[in-house]
Amino acid sequence: MVKRPVEHICEDCGAEFVASSTARFCPACRKKRMQANVKVMRKCTLCGREFVGTPRSLYCPSCRILKRHVNYRNYVERKRAGKAVELGKTIMNCEVCGKPFVVRGGGQRYCPDCAKEAYKESDRQQSRAWAQRAKEKKDASET
Q1: Is 72:85 a contact under the CB 8 Å cutoff?
Q2: Integer Rg of the chain from CA
Q3: For the residues 127-136, what does the mean pLDDT come to?
Q4: Whole-angstrom Cα distance, residue 10 to residue 12?
Q5: I need a surface site. Which of 10, 43, 93, 130 has the fewest CB within 10 A?
């Protein structure tokens, strides 16, 4: 069954809009609501202080600056030692098949032939882990 567009009145601003039969907010209000829901209270993994951040934020703003400095210092040391990866020049071996390839991106670990399937498998594993954590969180809140 195909959902046909229907005229609605936005529950936030009262504007008229056309969308699927289940829509409650106009596109502008929907975008604002989605952006507002992204920020949540997080706990910094370095100092333990609480801060408002996105779901993947690990560090509070002050620790994030400190972490950037440490990462940059490590990069400079690797570069001086000749161990930094230079895009388009460095040759690495694929983690799947072992074939050598020229690095085209900072996080590249696979040759172009293996990349698509390897990233799919990685994505599957992350999805399973997320689903498991969500299930455990739900079970814990029910008890």
Answers
A1: no
A2: 23
A3: 94
A4: 5
A5: 130
* Helix ranges (DSSP H) in the chain: 27-38, 61-80, 112-142
> pTM higher than 0.70 for the full model?
no
At 56, the pLDDT band (50, 70, 90 cuts) reads: confident
Confidence of residue 2 (pLDDT cuts 50, 70, 90): low
CB neighbour class for 124 (10 Å; exposed up to 12, middle 13-18, buried from 19): exposed
- Cα–Cα distance, 66 to 29 (Å, whole number): 37
Tokens of 27: 């596109």
Q: What is the pLDDT of residue 20?
A: 83
| Residues with Cβ within 8 Å of residue 88, at least 6 apart in sequence | 102, 103, 104
Locate tokens 């074939």: which residue? 99
Supply 84's token pair. 């930094």
| Rounded-to-integer distance, Cα 6 and Cα 122, Å | 40
pLDDT of 54 above 90 = no
